[in-house]
Amino acid sequence: MTTHPSPRHHPFWTDVARLVQIETRAFIDGDYVPAADGRTFACINPATGAVLGAVAACSIQDVDRAAAAARRSFESGRWSRCDPAVRRRTLIRLADLIEEHRDTLAILETLDTGKLIRDSATLDIPGSADVFRFFGEACDKLLDEAVPVGTGALATITREPVGVVGAVVPWNFPLKMAAWKCAPALAAGNSVILKPAEQSPLTALYLAGLAAEAGIPRGVFNVLPGFGPDAGAPIGLHPDIDCVGFTGSTEVGKLFLGYAGRSNMKRVWLECGGKSAFIVFPDARDLKAAAQAAAAGIFFNQGEICSATSRLFVHEDIRADFTALLLEAARAYMPGDPLDLASGMGAMVSAEQTQRVLSYIETGKSEANLLCGGGRVLAESGGSFIAPTIFADVDPRAVIATEEIFGPVLSIIPFRNEAEVVSLANASIYGLGASVWTSCLDRAVRLSRALHVGSVSVNAVDHVDLRTPFGGVKQSGNGRDLSLHAFEKYLDLKTTWISIGEAAA
Ligand code: ADP
Question: Is 271 marked active-site?
Answer without folding.
Answer: yes
